[in-house]
Write a structure and sequence with these properties.
mainly alpha; globular; disordered N terminus; disordered C terminus
């Protein structure tokens, strides 16, 4: 396609790709601001689906305060760290590159393994959630072979969509984001005459014990994962300018997407705390607006899950490309499609793992990969601080406007929540997490052996250091 067409398209822009081994052969469409905003939105949120448990766990007032305050002590620090590092080191791989540059190849490999396990196994949950919503309309998908085939088809179809190109995924994310949020705009408008503001300051029903672990976990996982989009930095148009704008815009969109439905539903319905569980927004919508609004919310939930899958798969696939670029995995893992210039090996491998996990009873595994994600985030904050000291003179297109002591304090607060999530983990989660971490250590030394014996071809990251630090 010619340049004249790209100039007229607000979603896409043509730009020569960075000279990395996996993308140096041809030009490709790069993500512009709007699709990146919605990809980050789906990495972080995808809409208010899943926030309901905060009300059930701690009551309306604490839920509202949580979604008002928690972004300032968790989401904003994570977003600021991502903005600085993604614009300073704008390559595919994101946090993997940061840990590698800060502490060396072992930490880079461990970061990649922790985040990859977390991302790929969480990926398996989305087709299951999609079918769980569809079975409300089509009961045949509730169990047995129809359910299994539906999960298989959904996973393969959504992965093929991802294979057709990040520009397609970005445009799809914009459409899915608007469509999945639209029922909550309707919910807000319908609820206005029914809202009683006094319900917002309700501390909860008497006799209902507060579940603070569930409350904080709900906040944590609904306002997390801003850094996942950093693995796409090599695919973004002018990442030094685009990333900070996209992170800020996606953060505002996510927070409003949580608060407006929460205030509407709490204010317009009498409190029955036990009903506030995951998925209850559909029932609340019927109570407020009728069956038509309930169906609309359920359709929005399915579209949101699709967006979550596409954003997550894009993140993990391009993370694998980044790991290949720094030599953490063999060069072949970074192979791209000749037709679409997408990382077909990363997409195919992630899809196969997700399919296997989706047919398992993986509740303990999911809890364990959340534990591993927390380990990765602690290493990410440490990498951010280390890179401030190690490369004080490097050009930072965006820099967190705080002195070193200030950024240390900024990182300590969210690190406290990460440690809390790890401390309250069960023994089984600790054991499974330890085994996964041991497997990651074995993988690093196996790759090191393969490199030293030249059994497999790897990239030499040192040759690219000057380019990444430009």
């Amino acid at each position: 396609m010619g340049d004249s067409q790209s100039n007229n398209d607000p979603l896409l822009a043509h730009e020569d790709p960075p000279l990395t081994p996996t993308s140096a052969v041809k030009s490709s469409k790069k993500l512009a601001l709007l699709p990146l905003i919605f990809l980050i939105f789906f990495e972080v949120s995808g809409g208010p689906y899943g926030e309901e448990a905060a009300v059930g766990a701690a009551g309306p007032l604490f839920a509202i305060l949580g979604f008002l305050i928690f972004p300032f002590i968790w989401s904003i620090p994570e977003g600021l760290v991502t903005a600085e590092l993604a614009t300073t080191f704008p390559g595919n791989g994101g946090f993997v590159i940061w840990a590698h540059k800060a502490f060396g190849p072992f930490c880079g490999s461990m970061m990649g393994s922790w985040k990859l396990l977390s991302g790929v196994i969480n990926l398996a949950a989305y087709p299951i959630l999609c079918i769980d919503y569809l079975k409300l309309v089509f009961p045949i998908f509730s169990s047995g072979n129809p359910r299994y085939f539906a999960i298989l088809f959904t996973t393969l179809f959504l992965s093929f969509l991802n294979y057709t190109g990040l520009s397609v995924v970005g445009f799809t994310a914009v459409c899915l984001g608007i469509a999945s949020l639209s029922p909550f705009l309707a919910l807000f408008l319908v609820s206005i005459p029914k809202i009683h503001a006094s319900r917002w300051i309700n501390l909860g029903q008497k006799g209902v014990k507060k579940d603070w672990r569930l409350f904080f976990n709900t906040l944590f996982w609904n306002l997390n994962f801003y850094d996942n989009a950093s693995t796409l930095a090599g695919e973004v148009e002018q990442p030094q300018k685009t990333f900070p704008k996209a992170l800020f815009s996606a953060g505002i969109l996510a927070c409003l997407g949580y608060l407006i439905p929460l205030l509407s539903a709490i204010g317009a319905t009498p409190l029955d705390q036990e009903k506030w569980v995951d998925g209850c927004f559909a029932d609340l919508a019927m109570e407020i607006g009728g069956n038509w609004l309930k169906i609309w919310v359920e359709i929005g939930a399915v579209l949101s899950v699709i967006g979550l899958y596409e954003a997550q798969l894009s993140s993990v696939a391009y993370q694998i490309v980044g790991m290949a670029d720094i030599g953490a995995v063999p060069r072949v893992f970074g192979s791209r499609s000749e037709w679409f210039d997408t990382p077909w090996v990363g997409i195919m491998g992630s899809t196969l793992i997700a399919l296997v996990v989706s047919f398992l009873n993986f509740s303990d595994i999911i809890s364990s990969v959340n534990f591993l994600y927390s380990l990765g985030m602690l290493l990410e904050f440490a990498s951010f601080l280390r890179l401030r000291v190690k490369f004080p003179e490097v050009n930072r297109p965006y820099k967190v406007p705080l002195p070193f002591a200030g950024v240390v304090i900024m990182c300590l607060v969210p690190s406290g929540f990460l440690i809390y999530v790890m401390v309250v983990a069960t023994l089984r989660v600790l054991v499974v997490s330890a085994l996964m971490t041991l497997a990651a250590v074995v993988w690093y030394y196996l790759m090191k052996l393969c490199r030293s014996r030249m059994w497999i071809v790897f990239e030499d990251f040192n040759e690219k250091d000057d380019m990444i630090l430009r």
